[in-house]
Amino acid sequence: MPLLQHAGALLSLVLVFWTGSSLFALLHPGTVRLLARGGRSDGISPSREPASEGRIRLQGGLMSLAGLILLALPPLL
Predict the structure, then answer these.
(1) Transmembrane ranges (predicted)?
(2) How far apart are CA 35 and CA 32, in angstroms?
(3) In the chain, which ranges are E strands?
């Protein structure tokens, strides 16, 4: 039984990290794009790629919503 409790705690920790990083992507899409390029700035301003930022915001929002739902499920069951 303690092994199951440790697995549940580890899963909760992973879900909290997932939700937090997804919220970061939602709030800071320009930084996420810069990190995806390996931290190199290639001279493209954030205003020149609005479709990319919108996609990052959408994915971050959906992933953080999924993480929050999964974190809220165990107390509801």
Answers:
(1) 6-27
(2) 5
(3) none
Residue pair 32/56 in contact by the 8 Å Cβ criterion: yes
Q: Report the phi/psi class of residue 39: left, alpha or beta, with left for phi > 0 and alpha for psi in -120 to 50.
A: left
Dist. CA 26–CA 23, nearest whole Å: 5
C-alpha 19/C-alpha 27 separation (Å) is 12
- Token pair in block for residue 56: 């990052």
Q: What is the pLDDT of residues 49-72, one digit of tens each?
A: 666 888 888 888 899 999 888 888
Q: Which residue carries 């107390």 as its tokens?
A: 75
What is the number of alpha carbons within 13 Å of residue 34 lying toward its C-beta?
A: 11
pLDDT in tens, 6-56: 888 888 889 899 898 999 988 888 888 888 777 666 665 555 566 688 888
